[in-house]
Amino acid sequence: MSNALYGTTVKTLTMQDITAMKQRGEKITCLTAYDASFSALCDAVGIELLLVGDSLGMVIQGRSTTLPVTIDDMIYHTRCVSQARQRAFIIADLPFMSYPTPLIAAQNAARLMQESGAQMVKLEGARTDTTRFLVEQGIPVCGHLGLLPQHINHTGVYKVQGKTSADADKILENAHQLQQAGASLLVLECVPAALAKLISHELTIPTIGIGAGVGCDGQVLVLYDMLGISIGKSPRFSKNFMHDAHSIRDALAAYQLAVKQSQFPTPEHSF
Ligand code: KIV
Predict the structure, then answer these.
(1) How far apart are CA 192 and CA 163, in angstroms?
(2) 55: Cβ below 6 Å to ligand 1?
(3) For FRET with 83, which of 90, 103, 116, 163 sits at 20 to 30 Å CA-CA?
(4) Residues with a known catalytic role
(5) How far is CA 27 from CA 130, 150, 197, in A?
(6) According to the model, what pLDDT value does residue 9 have?
(7) Are residues 178 and 143 in contact, defined by beta-carbon separation less than 8 angstroms?
(8) What percent of the chain has pLDDT over 70?
(9) Which residue range(s) make up the domain with 198?
(10) How many domains in the chain?
């Protein structure tokens, strides 16, 4: 696949390439991206996965949660990102209430893939039936366990999940069920590092951690947090890579290298 904007012949990564990285023990780098310029910069420094997260509701739209984000918002931003990258694999979030049934999920995921160039969709929670149905339709799925921002009105606060042994067992069981249902990738958000390491060891699909310790197969951060430009306080598990950088490109490259060398996250950024 070559890139439409630049007409280049750089090969776009496939999920097989990403899985092969886990198999050979190479750390996978991921950042959120919401527009063409950051997409091209992240791509140029070698970030392998670009996640068009519904965090755009907070960092782009200035909302207090991700809940107001619509499927049309996701299509718009994913198109901006996918047009500007050459090599990175593009994952797009299915936003709040865009997957209440497997059929509605498939219809919205199809729009994301056809209208914006997403190569995979991400769903929050243990949605095994929906995952199985999407995979049957040819739609690659990334699961998302641990802290689920779309469930903020249940949980009340954004906090670490899986701290009791019963909660940890449930997350581990859900991770296996999602893999069994056909998910190709799993995001683990805000879970104890030991739990994320165990899940990463037991699953054959790659895990991508955010606030989940260095034992995951890859790492993701919200781009604006790691550049220190998010509104308000950044989460404890994030790191401002602009502190020691001369340019945004340097900061992205420093993040890429730190993840590759297992130097990020440190215990200070883990639970
Ligand atoms: O929406 C998002 O940016 C995400 C990441 C925090 C994993 O889901």
Answers:
(1) 7
(2) yes
(3) 103
(4) 189
(5) 28, 27, 13
(6) 76
(7) yes
(8) 97
(9) 10-269
(10) 1
